[in-house]
Amino acid sequence: MTIYVDEAALPYRGALYCHMMIDRDADLEELHLFAERLGLKRRWFQNQKPQYPHYDLSPRMRAKAILFGAVEIESAGLLYYCKRGPLLFSYTPPSEESHGESTPHDGTI
């Protein structure tokens, strides 16, 4: 199981929020347990579109999630690895050469 957070890009209450999701094949209960460890309430879980179940995180909660082991990933990668149901697109993670950093996954997904 991997918990992912994308870049903060959702304006809300004067800050930029992000999404927190879990591998598409993982049990959603693991996402809820991780959210609970962060201090999030289950009623904040976003499931209006069942193929994209997630929590929205404030900048402070995003930083805390990363400290607790969440993996940073760009939004396209988040949707690819976490979308529930048929995949409608492919995704190629940024290469180390092009961004100077390692890819956000270990290739086991």
Shape: globular
**What value does the Rg take, in angstroms?**
14 Å
Major β-sheet, in short? 5 strands, mixed
Overall residue-averaged pLDDT value: 78
Share of helix, binned: 25-40%
Q: Provide the β-strand percentage band.
A: 15-25%
Instruction: Please write the string of helix (H) and strand (E) elements.
Output: EEEHEHEHH
Distance between the termini: 9 Å
Provide a descriptive summary of the structure in words.
- This protein has 109 residues and is an alpha+beta fold.
- The chain has one domain (3-99).
- It has helices spanning 28-38, 59-67, 75-82, 96-99; strands spanning 3-5, 10-12, 15-22, 55-57, 71-72.
- Strands 1, 2, 3, 4 and 5 form a 5-stranded mixed beta sheet that branches.
- It is globular.
- The model is unreliable at 97-109 (pLDDT under 50).
Throw out a few tags for this protein.
disordered C terminus; 4 helices; 5 strands; 109 residues; 29% helix
Question: Helices, strands, pairings?
Answer:
Elements: E1 3-5, E2 10-12, E3 15-22, H1 28-38, E4 55-57, H2 59-67, E5 71-72, H3 75-82, H4 96-99
Parallel strand pairs: 1-5
Antiparallel strand pairs: 1-3, 2-3, 3-4
